[in-house]
Amino acid sequence: MDTARCKAFVAAARVGSFSRAAEELHYTTSAVSQLITALEEDLQLPLFLRSRKGVTLTADGERMYPVLYNLVRQEEKVYETAAEISGLIVGKITITAYPSICAAWLPGLIRRFQERYPGVTIRIDDSIRKYVLEALNSGRADVGFLSNQHDFTGEWIDLQKNPMVAVVSQESPYARWDSFPLAECEKAVMIQSSHGVDKDISGIFEKYDLHPNIVYTTRNSGTAAAMVQDDMGVLLVNELSTHMWRYRVKVLPLDPPQSISLGMAVSAFSSASPAVKTFVRFVRDAFES
Questions:
Q1: Which of 49, 58, 187, 271 is most buried, judging by how many CB atoms fall within 10 Å of its CB?
Q2: Is 2 contained in some domain?
């Protein structure tokens, strides 16, 4: 398999554009298009849907992505391992994480890591739990930062316990309370900051047999917080998320108190690249010190 074709495919799939992939790979747009067309002809599969707005993967392309991505990563690991033998740590790391962790933890961790290992480049993708898990399970990400809901088959490292809190507007009657009783979730207008099931929250509701009055859902917790500021409802989130905002809201502890375990997930540490292994050890040591 021609790895240049695979690299062009992976880059275009990630950025959604042949021209942007060309910039990343230091090719011409025409060269990227030709490489991908040759790959499609070789596999006898249509991999991309092309439009004026860019490109998106076909169903066949979605199935091929993790296979071709891993092929590219294996070649990169060869050179990274050779560099490690020579005493250098080089390579690429793709991180997927909750937005709250991206904002609160990763800037400082990555800055210190790259001061020590300048030959490593890092790409960060922030998203809700569903997409963090998809990126890890498909191989699109090397390391994930999320909560532990025991639904990931890779290796897990606990880093920190984080309390769950209720966020209310300063005009809300709840703002005068010292805490937010979980039973109120059945009465108050609730805002959910993820599409579908949020396991960090749903587990709490199941534990206490609660049926929350969820009226609004949004994928972005910042949008949800802005809605809270306008007194549209109550939001339950991990406390770390509130560090990202500058909204006029009040944060209340839950009654009874609840917390989640935040940590780091790696699909397969034993087969990870030297750069990924070094990063994982660095993060673990940073939290243990």
A1: 58
A2: yes
Q: Determine how β-strand 143-147 pairs with β-strand 259-266.
A: antiparallel
247's tokens? 């909204």
Q: Any idea what the Cα angle at residue 150 is, between residues 148 and 154, rounded to 5°?
A: 90
Per-residue CA distances from 31 to 21, 26, 36, 112 (Å)? 10, 10, 9, 37
CATH of the domain at 8: 1.10.10.10
What's 171's domain CATH number? 3.40.190.290
Q: Domains in the chain: how many in total?
A: 2
Residue 97 Cα distances to 47, 57, 141, 187, angstroms: 27, 23, 10, 32
Domain that holds residue 190: 164-259
pLDDT digits (tens, 9 = 90+) for 114-166: 999 999 999 999 888 888 988 888 888 899 999 998 778 789 999 999 999 99
